[in-house]
Specification:
Blueprint lengths: L1 E4 H13 L4 H12 L3 H9 L4 E4 L3 H14 L3 H5 L1 E4 L2 E4 L13 H10 L7 E5 L5 H9 L4 E6 L2 H14 L5 E5 L13 E6 L6 H5 L3 H4 L15 H13 E10 L5 H10 L2 E8 L5 E8 L1
Bound molecules: S-adenosylmethionine (SAM).
């Protein structure tokens, strides 16, 4: 631990933020690399005469901040950590940085299932860092979860995250193409969730460079119209869901109506578009028969 006066630290912090970037990214840097949480930071302003202890020196922190600003590298990749709901997850450039809007999927599940104590089986398709499945496995210790990803490197991160977040064993990981690893779960799922790659090709080409140059294409690109993977997931879902089993999908801001139609064509009932916090129809849900 390195000690530094609070006054010197606050001066340095102001200088870094004056170069650009946002407070949230800077807080991630301070927490993950410097060992100073947002809570500690708030206390500093109250006790400016105190001494502060850092895990790494200011030069090291500054070099990461400069890298973030000059190359647009996401701070989460530079620090190797992303915060999502109450989870602190390891991330590398093999996984999508889990987004705040996706956090709402967990609330949708809470709304549908409440605080159920009975055993259920859920599946997540395209787990990436494992965020969604881990949050559910922790919230529902009696549920059994299975999660897939096509990319073994991503799955390795998800597995590490599950081990780091919990001592539970109610989540298993499988590598493979969408439903393929779930052959033995046909007709057995109470709930399936996916935040699949859904960005249409022309939109993908125009994504900001901090996304396009750093995050995995396989996690973002959804074919010409963005719906390639959503179509495949919906078409096979009836084989795997129990009667009255739920499917929850995240989609692009303008895909809700199309996804709703696809679900209806596949005989889903109670189909509904659910808005995210900015009022965008970000999720489409349905119940199989
Ligand atoms: C948008 S990311 C979502 C990651 C994570 N669930 C989240 O919400 O942050 C989509 C994930 O689907 C995976 N994926 C892409 N194509 C796939 C396929 N054909 N089968 C299984 N997983 C796939 C990607 O590797 C990526 O991890």
């Amino acid at each position: 631990m390195l000690s530094i006066s609070v006054k010197e630290f606050l001066y340095w912090k102001k200088k870094q933020l004056s170069k650009g970037g946002d407070h949230q990214s800077f807080a991630v840097l301070l927490d993950c690399i410097g060992g100073i949480s947002t809570f500690d930071l708030n206390l500093l302003s109250i006790n400016p005469k105190e001494t502060l202890y850092l895990k790494k020196n200011l030069e090291h922190l500054e070099s990461i901040w400069n890298d973030h600003l000059s190359n647009s590298s996401p701070i989460q990749y530079l620090c190797g950590i992303a915060f999502w709901r109450d989870l602190k997850l390891k991330v590398t450039d093999k996984v999508l940085i889990p987004r705040p809007e996706t956090e709402l999927i967990i609330d949708i599940v809470f709304k549908i299932f409440g605080k159920q104590s009975q055993k259920l089986t859920f599946a997540e398709l395209g787990t990436g860092s494992g965020a969604i499945s881990i949050a559910l496995a922790l919230a529902y210790p009696l549920w059994d979860g299975i999660a897939t990803d096509i990319d073994q490197d991503a799955l390795d991160i998800a597995i590490k995250n599950f081990i780091n977040c919990s001592k539970q064993t109610n989540l298993k990981f499988y590598c493979g193409y969408w439903w393929t690893p779930f052959e033995s779960f046909k007709g057995k799922l109470d709930l399936a969730i996916s935040n699949p790659p859904y960005i249409p090709k022309d939109t993908y080409e125009k994504l900001p460079k901090e996304v396009k140059n750093f995050e995995p294409e396989i996690a973002l690109l959804g074919g010409e119209d963005g719906l390639k993977h959503i179509r495949e997931i919906i078409q096979k879902a009836p084989l795997f869901l129990k009667e009255k089993g739920w499917l929850i999908l995240e989609n692009h801001f303008d895909q809700g109506e199309k996804v709703k139609q696809l679900l209806i064509e596949s005989k889903f009932k109670s189909v509904e578009i659910v808005n995210d916090l900015s009022g965008v129809g970000r999720f489409t849900i349905g119940r199989y028969k």
